Amino acid sequence: MNNQKLLQVFSSGLMKYKIAWDKQKYFHSLRVKNMIPDTLMLLEHSNVYTLGRHGNDSNIVGDKDFLKKHKIEIFNIERGGDVTFHGPGQLVGYPIFAIKQMGIRPKELVEKIENIIIELLRNYDIEAKIIDNLPGVWVGNEKIAAIGMRIIDHVALHGFALNVNTNLELFSGIIPCGIQDKGVTSIKKISGKEQNIEKIKDKIIQLFKLEFSFEDVEMWNKISHPDTFTSTSSV
After folding, report:
1. Rounded average pLDDT over 40-45
2. How many domains is the chain partitioned into structurally?
3. pTM of the entire structure?
4. Nearest residue to 38 via CA among 113, 107, 102
5. Contact 187, 120 (CB under 8 A)
6. Which of these, 209, 231, 211, lies nearest to 221 by C-alpha position?
7. Residue 39: which H helix or E strand, with range?
8. Is 145 a catalytic residue?
9. Whole-angstrom Cα distance, residue 1 to residue 91?
10. Active-site position among 48, 146, 177, 200
């Protein structure tokens, strides 16, 4: 099959940010060389605050005791945007897509991801929206999904973070995305019940397939050299 029509998905449970970041950059290097197809990483992170390349340290307001109590790491990274939180119960997606080959621009990539998240939330009777000049996906005045991307050598890095069962209290240690007058929410908070994050992953994969017109999806059981990948299933 033409790799441009194949979506490769790496799905994992909880993973420390540095480990996932290294794997993401490794996948990116392979995609730049056209050694693998477009790849979507789906996982959860241990508690971490990440600062984008335009981020302001002053937007991390939690003190050392707060960070230590909740075992929150801090990373400065190359994506756009300011500061955000990742932690268990939040679904993080990294679409490592060769957008030039797809024939789309960075703005279109972000819009497609926004569309996917909004459509997903409709399955949970949640009406989400985009707010002009404010990144992410919103329910009322509360952010339910953050989006921060960077394109290097025509291939995307970083992605989105959807609050599913996230501990929203840990957002109190930052000013999310540097926006003072907005809140955060989650599917759990709105629905009033814990959600099955694996089912949400399955829905996200199908929506990516539709939105980006992939013909097939392959799931992989590990990240290593592409010659050693072992396919586990097809979606």
Report:
1. 95
2. 1
3. 0.84
4. 102
5. no
6. 231
7. strand 38-45
8. no
9. 29
10. 177
